[in-house]
Amino acid sequence: MEIVAGLNLTSIKPRVWDESSDYYLPQLGAVMVSYAEFHQSPTRRDRAMEKGLHESLGIPDHVKIYLDNGAFRFSRAGGEVPRDAYKEFVEEAKPDWHVIPQDYIPTPDMSDYMQNKCLEKTMAVNQEFSYDGYVPILHVSRRLKKYIRLFNEDEKLREKPNFAIGGIVPNLLRASKAMSYEKILNSIYKVRETFAEQALHLFGVGGTSTLHVAALLGMDSVDSVGWRNRAARGLIQMPGIGDRSIADLGNWKVREPNTEELKLLADCQCPACQEHGIEGLKKDRTIGFCNRATHNLWILLEENRLIQKHLKDGTYAKWYKNHLHNTIYRPLIDKLVEKHLKQK
Ligand SMILES: [Zn+2]
């Protein structure tokens, strides 16, 4: 499974893909950028179209660049992604992976009728852009079964090598009428079972424990801006135990690390902790942010490496029991592991 690190182009630091940076993470294979950020800055958009995304952002070719359409951000401003402009951008800037120009995200509080409207409108875009590299989207919603059926019935879509699964975030945020975790997992599992050949990307997976869920569901890639969002709030991720508050940047109701956890942190092998230690994580301003963000992304990449290793050599079922603590996802992970073992 590939971890795709979500970027924010207005403050692109830390340059974790850059070999000459103190924050270089050689394990990083992919980043994600949003078209909304190019559309709002004509200079940035022009430069990307002229030089290509990699050169314009200074990201080496071996780090893949995923392009999200930014539909969520456009919709908050009451609009839609301008499709022709998006199409033109894709053709010139050449991302390594790009979704269809627009999808309509069903939120849990919508009626079945409205969720169905979202599906119909998203399916129309999936079908209109069923050529070239456009990655079609299906949404986790109460209508997911219909999505699966429509994808199956459409020859062009069925033959696409990549699918993306969206809509999970509003459900995980426990919005009112959100689907139960178990229903969400079962529906994603259904997509995996039905489309065994496709590379599946799951949008918006945040912390270390959700990585376990995504890996057990057989996802091929996930993206996260969590490493940056948490860093901005003074939070750091810890392997197997979730988030801790390390810098006092607001009341986020997150525990501070205890003595044992501080010991763990003192041994952290990430480039930020190696260079600046725990004190570096506590700093404010850009330096503190860069240290925490790099640490967080390193933890995600390392967690993923361990998950893949243990799944591969058959030791996962034993390993996760001692490794994963205090996560609300634990009962779900238990169930998924059972499912996983049964299949073998
Ligand atoms: Zn670290």
What is the secondary structure topology, with strand pairs?
Layout: E1 2-6, E2 30-34, H1 35-39, H2 42-51, H3 53-57, E3 64-68, H4 71-76, H5 83-93, E4 97-99, H6 112-128, E5 134-135, E6 137-139, H7 144-153, H8 155-158, E7 162-166, H9 168-172, H10 181-194, E8 199-202, H11 208-216, E9 221-224, H12 226-232, E10 235-238, E11 242-245, H13 259-266, H14 271-282, H15 285-312, H16 316-323, H17 330-343
Parallel strand pairs: 1-2, 1-9, 2-3, 3-4, 4-5, 6-7, 7-8, 8-9
Antiparallel strand pairs: 10-11
Summarize this structure as a short list of keywords or feature phrases.
single chain, 344 residues, alpha/beta, 9-stranded parallel β-sheet, two-stranded antiparallel ribbon, 17 helices, 11 strands, 13% strand, globular, binds zinc ion
Would you write up a description of this structure?
The chain contains 17 helices and 11 strands. It is of the alpha/beta class. The chain has a 9-stranded parallel beta sheet with strand order 5-4-3-2-1-9-8-7-6. It has a two-stranded antiparallel ribbon with strand order 10-11. Helix 11 (208-216) packs parallel to helix 15 (285-312). The model has no long low-confidence stretch (mean pLDDT 93). Zinc ion binds at residues 268, 270, 272-273, 295, 298.
Listed once per kind, the bound small molecules are: zinc ion
Helix content bin: 40-55%
Structural class: alpha/beta
Percentage beta strand: 5-15%
N-to-C series of helices and strands: EEHHHEHHEHEEHHEHHEHEHEEHHHHH
Number of helices: 17
Which regions have little confidence, pLDDT < 50, spanning 5+ residues?
none
